[in-house]
Amino acid sequence: MDLSILDQKIQAFIDANIGTSISKLALQKNPFPEINWISILNQIEAKTKAKDKLPNWFATTNIIYPSKISVEQTSSEKTASYKASIVSGESLIDLSGGFGVDDYYFSKKIKKIAHCEINPELSVIVQHNFKQLQVSNCTCYAEDSSETLKKLNRHWDWIYIDPSRRNDAKGKVFLLKDCLPNVPENLQFYFKNSESILIKTAPLLDISAGLSELENVAAIHIVAVENEVKELLWELHSSFSGKTKIKTVNLLKDSCEKFDFTLNEPTEFLPFSNPKKYLYEPNSAIMKSGGFEEVGAFYKLYKLHKHSHLYTSEDLIPFPGRVFKIQNQITYHKTEMKSFLENKQANITTRNFPETVESIRKKWKIKEGGSLYCFFTTDMNNEKIILICSKI
């Protein structure tokens, strides 16, 4: 790692060019010929990515960034903070440390953290940055994490793993066995070192597929940020047996939507209804969970159709997702479309509907945006309908 990148003039240049087009900067002459121009451009690009995702890193002086891809792949501070709320105890070892964002937040909850990163350059960068961030309870190990576990030969309160997908697994169905480290293969070895394991995976992983590969899954946390699912967290305890808890969380700017349920537990019958006064659309974390009956039953709502995953009620209730007041209901016919929506401006959502948003916009010349929200869906009588709503 070349520490000359921390020269005050170079750092000032990096800060002055946050957000600047890298392709345009690349055509300029390097104002610091003693430093590799690509390295400076990489710092600008990576720090620009960190501005919203990693505000603590962005605001701290003399931080060194790895490649832009490493910053893109790391946890955001919001999701890292949520992970830290799950763990407890005296010690935690991170078997796939990366840029160290998760460990920064773990270090605020756990007394002793071990950061394992097989890339020696990235490990050195993390050590340097932790000093700048005043993290003093984390030790970095630049080697294979399995070797570190064997070498340290101690009990850990938690093992944390963020396995990366192998390059040769591209195009295949996403399975944990296709990642490094291979968690299913090493699970019993991990349980010899800790009774509690937390695994982070991409949202692409199918929940049923993950459950078929893992054992002792006490809970699955589905974490969304601003209604976009960012990661799945698999909480394993060696002594656990029973039904898995599903915990959905949607981290918003100033609040947090949570909804929990137990997997494969019978729920009360969810009645169907034609649209009433209000319409409810579950957030993306609930949609990923598949808890469509559970959320409707918990909030005592009516469902529009078995496969529409939209709910309705006569009275307004708080709900983990988007809530709308239904202004009008029309059938999907040429006459009504021409009268109510053709050449208008509206936000369009399709749920259990045979056409895409793009094809609907093109066919009826509907512009994007505005204050109208239109749900193209199917009702309990299998009729194609449009609900014209205002957002609450």
From TrEMBL:
Residue intervals of the PG-1098 ferredoxin-like domain: 278-320
Top-level taxonomic group: Bacteria
UniProt KW keywords: Methyltransferase, Transferase
GO molecular function, one term: methyltransferase activity
Any single GO BP term: methylation
InterPro entries with a match to the protein in the record: PG_1098_Fer, SAM-dependent_MTases_sf, Thump-like
Pfam families recorded: PG_1098_Fer, Thump_like
Domain THUMP-like residue range list: 321-391
Protein name in UniProt: Class I SAM-dependent methyltransferase
Organism (species): Flavobacterium pygoscelis
